[in-house]
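Bench log, entry 3. Co-assembly request; chain sequences pasted below exactly as received.
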Amino acid sequence: MLCDHDSNGIVHMELPVSSPFHPPQRTLMGPGPSDVSPRVLAASARPTIGHLDPLFVGLMDDVKRLLQFAFQTKNELTIPLSAPGSAGMEAAFVNLLEPGDKAIVCQNGVFGGRMKENVERCGCTAVMVQDRWGDPVDPEKVAEAISAHPDAKVLAFVHSETSTGVRSDARLLCGMAQSAGMLSIVDAVTSLAGIELPVDDWGADVVYSGTQKCLSSLPGISPITFSPAAVEVIATRRHKVQSWFLDMNLIMGYWGEGAKRAYHHTAPVNAVYALHESLLMLEEEGLGASFTRHRNNHLKLVEGLSRLGLDLAVSEPWRLPQLNAVVIPEGKDDAKIRRRLLEDFNLEVGAGLGELAGRQWRIGLMGSSSNQVNISRCLTAFESVLAS
Amino acid sequence: MLCDHDSNGIVHMELPVSSPFHPPQRTLMGPGPSDVSPRVLAASARPTIGHLDPLFVGLMDDVKRLLQFAFQTKNELTIPLSAPGSAGMEAAFVNLLEPGDKAIVCQNGVFGGRMKENVERCGCTAVMVQDRWGDPVDPEKVAEAISAHPDAKVLAFVHSETSTGVRSDARLLCGMAQSAGMLSIVDAVTSLAGIELPVDDWGADVVYSGTQKCLSSLPGISPITFSPAAVEVIATRRHKVQSWFLDMNLIMGYWGEGAKRAYHHTAPVNAVYALHESLLMLEEEGLGASFTRHRNNHLKLVEGLSRLGLDLAVSEPWRLPQLNAVVIPEGKDDAKIRRRLLEDFNLEVGAGLGELAGRQWRIGLMGSSSNQVNISRCLTAFESVLAS
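Structure output for the full assembly:
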C-alpha cells in the first residue's frame, strides 16, 4: 500500500486495484460519525425491500413516530430526509424563504456561515448577528437585530455548534422569534438525543438534525421537523421551492400524514432500517437517561483531560457534553498527534474547523461513543502521544 | 398487525410499537431497488469509519476509478453524490444553468417532466420536445428545436426512461448537442451497468445515475460524471449555484482530483462501502458480460410472458432489457394482481407511473435481479395470479 502525507497531515493511500474494503474498527470520538453499534449495522444489512412496499410504508410510520419522540414534538411533518444534515439545512431555508425575503442569521461558528450561504442562494438577504467563535449566540444582539429588522421572516441559529462545541439558548431565541412574529430555524445536527431538544416546548418552527451524531446511526439522513405554522407557510408559497428534490410540498406526498405515498424519489431503504433501529435503542434507554449519560460521561472526560493538563475552550455553562473543544497545548503538532492517535490507537478525534484549525481538537462523546470504555481509551491514548 | 387497503391497492399496516423491523426476502423485479446481493449487504455493514479518515479517502479514490470504468469515461469529476438519483438530476441542472438560460428538454415519460421542473426552478426556460410515452425521443423534432433555439445552452434527455421502459438514441442526441455547441445532460439512472453507456465515446457532458438499479447496490447515492467542458462551465459561473449542498465547486474540494479533501458534508460512509462492493462485482463480471446477461435474460422473460399472453408495450428496437413495460390485459385488476404477487409470492413488480398507471406493469431485470431463477419465479407467479 502506497502512503504519503500531505500538508494537512492527512495520509493518502492507494488501494490495490479491485480489492474489497475492510475498514478497521476505529473508536470514533470526532464530531461524527460516532460509533455505530453492531445492532444498528445488522439492521442496516437486512434484505432491501421496495420503497413503496406496504411493509416499508409501515416502517415509515414507525420511524415518524420515533422521530416525534426524539424531537419531543407532535409535529405531523417529522421525517427523515434522504440526504445528510447539510441538505436538512438547505431544506429548511429553501422551503421557508421566497426571493426577496429577509432572514436574521446568528453566526458563532462554521455552520452559521453556511446558513448565510443558504439564505443568499435563495435570493434573500441575510442580516448577520456575529459572535466570537466559542461563545454562545448573544440574545441582546439578536434583540437589536429583531428591532432593527422587524420585517425579517426567519430567525436562524445553531443550537449545538459542531465547529466550536458551544450550546446556545434555543428556548430564549425561539421565544424571541415567536414574539416578533418570525419563524425560527434551528440547527440541531449535534443536539438530537444528546441534550434537551423539546421542539414543541420551545415553539421552534423548523429543526433539522443528522443521524451520525448522537443517534449513532449511519451517516446520510437528516431528520427534520416542521411546525404547523411552517407547513402553512410552505403550503401557501407564491413561488415554487427552488429545489425539486427538497420541496416539502412534494415530499409530503410520500411521507405526509394520510398521504397516498406517492413516488417522489427512492428512499434510502437500508439507511432507514438503521435509523429505525437506532431510534428503538433511544426509546429503550429513554431520552432523559440518554441526556444524563452524555452529561456524566462529559464530566468524566473533562476531569481526565484536566489531569493531563488539557483545557476546554468553552466556558462551562455553554459546553456541549457530546462535543468537547480542547485547546491544543503550545508547541504541540496538531496533525502529527491526530495521526498517531489514529494509527497507533485506532482513535479518531476531530480537527479544528475553519478559523479554529490547528488551535483546537474536538473530542466527541456522541451516542454509542459516549461510554466509559471510550473515555479510558481516549485518555490513555492522549497521555501516551502527549508524553512522546 | 392492522391492515387496510387504500384506493391504490397499497396496504397500510401499523407496526407494533418499538418492534425491530425484519423485512421479508422479496424478489425485487420492479423499477428499482433491485435485489441487493448478500455480498453488498455485508460490505455495507462493516464498521463505520470517519469520512475524513485516510483509509476512507483511499476508498474514495477507488470508487472514483471504478465509476470511471462503469461510465466508460476518463472524466476526472466522476463521483457518487450523497443523495438519490433525483438529486443527481438536480445537480446536473443547477450546476450547468444560470438564471435566464434556455434548455431544450426532451420528454417521453415521467422523468423528462422532472427535468422541465428543474430547469424552471433554476429561473430558466425549458423548450420542450414532446414524444408519446412509450416512444423514443424523436431526433427530427430535436433537430427542429435546435435550429429554432440555437441559443439554448443545454440539451437534456432521458437515455433509459424508467417510466416507460424505452431507450433513446443517446449517441445521436449527444452528437447533435455537440454540433450545435450545446452541453448535453443525460439521465442514465436505469442505464448504468445494464446497457451500453460509453460516456466519452458519445461526448456526453453530464451523466447521472442511481445505485439501486443495474448496480444493485443500496438506494441513496447518485453516481455522476462531468466532462471537462461541463467542469469549465461550472468553474466560470457568474452566479453561485443555487444549491449549497449540490454545488460542484464545493464538492470538488472533497471529491476532486488532488483536492485537499476539505470537509463539505458527511459522506454516507456505509452506502459508499456498498457501492464499492457492487462496482467490484461489476468489474469482475465485466461490462460487456453484464450487458449480454441483461440482454439474454430480457429475451427469455419476453418469451415466457408471450406464452402467458402478455405483450410488451414498447416496440422491439427501443426496449430496455432491464425494464420491461407489459400491457395489463383487458379486465385484469392491476392493484389486486400486484398485491397477490407481493403477498403470495414475495414478488415486487412495478406499477405504471403517471399517465400509464393502471395500464402497464414494469418488470425489472436489473443487476443482481437479472437471473434465471427470478425469471422462472416471475413467470410462475404471473401464471398463477392471472389464472385465478
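The first strand of chain B starts at residue 2 and ends at 5. Chain B has two domains: 2-35+286-387, 39-283.
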